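> call design_seq(struct)
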């Protein structure tokens, strides 16, 4: 009988493994608490040579996977990691969103959209057309100002007051996209969209207005707009949460006011119910009302 020799785990000393080890160190609670770690501390934790650590971190910094503070020489995880994580998360959202968007489209007979935040704008990643008579515009790949849309407001509805203030100060003056930009991006130059409303039509003209709107969204679990982005257009949006209970996207429905204005809140409830189903599918355990609070976790509004 041939006896199979016992195997001991092989120590992986490849360069990639060593690089990943440094990224893991910079993701530890100590690194996050101290706002980064210096070369000496990283070398101490890993048991590796300081010169080697310094060279590796410098290379990672060149590619954006880590970032070095020139004042205190500490290293933190870099923008490139967060960008990759965001794209991975959004790819999963797009892949799995179809069945949930179809539920909204079938229940409302209107087109449903999957949207995410991009700074001060909302980007539509996927649209699902209704198979009924009423069909809307596909907005995939189109970016519009967040503050005047139900989707934009729903996307920031779990932020803290401080985060909301910083975001509002940066983006409240963002100009509305022009009709020509919308035409080029959605329908083609020969078709017309409704007139863009002036600022007086918006419910949000001050930071206090935004706080009140966020309170309303948290209370009812969805956001609505009535001709604030485009004359004759109304919409409803509800947030999608991942396994960390943080908002990672929204389901949005926008349609002509003449069609859904009388039942806009009912539409909002439908969107909320399906968004909560999607959230549970992604591992979320809390609703918007339960998970949102002014003392919620801070986050960087990169999306």
């Amino acid at each position: 009988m041939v006896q199979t020799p016992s195997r001991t785990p092989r120590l992986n000393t490849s360069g990639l493994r060593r690089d990943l080890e440094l990224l893991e160190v910079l993701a530890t609670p100590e690194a996050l608490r101290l706002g980064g770690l210096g070369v000496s501390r990283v070398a101490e934790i890993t048991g590796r040579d300081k010169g080697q650590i310094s060279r590796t971190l410098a290379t990672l910094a060149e590619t954006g996977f880590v970032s070095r503070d020139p004042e205190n020489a500490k290293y933190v995880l870099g923008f490139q990691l967060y960008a990759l994580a965001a794209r991975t998360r959004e790819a999963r959202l797009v892949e799995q969103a179809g069945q949930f968007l179809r539920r909204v489209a079938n229940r409302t007979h209107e087109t449903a959209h999957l949207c995410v935040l991009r700074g001060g704008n909302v980007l539509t990643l996927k649209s699902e057309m209704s198979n009924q008579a009423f069909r809307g515009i596909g907005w995939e790949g189109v970016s519009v100002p967040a503050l005047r849309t139900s989707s934009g407001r729903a996307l920031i509805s779990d932020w803290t007051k401080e985060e909301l203030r910083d975001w509002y100060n940066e983006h409240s003056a963002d100009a509305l996209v022009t009709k020509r930009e919308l035409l080029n991006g959605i329908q083609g130059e020969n078709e017309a969209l409704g007139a863009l409303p002036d600022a007086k039509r918006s419910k949000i003209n001050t930071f206090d207005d935004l706080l009140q709107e966020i309170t309303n969204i948290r209370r009812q679990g969805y956001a609505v707009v009535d001709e604030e982005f485009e004359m004759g257009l109304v919409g409803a949006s509800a947030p999608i949460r991942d396994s960390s209970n943080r908002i990672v996207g929204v389901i949005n429905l926008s349609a002509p006011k003449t069609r859904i204005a009388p039942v806009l809140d009912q539409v909002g409830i439908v969107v909320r119910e399906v968004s909560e189903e999607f959230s549970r599918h992604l591992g979320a355990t809390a609703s918007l009302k339960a998970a949102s609070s002014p003392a919620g976790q801070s986050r960087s509004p990169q999306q």
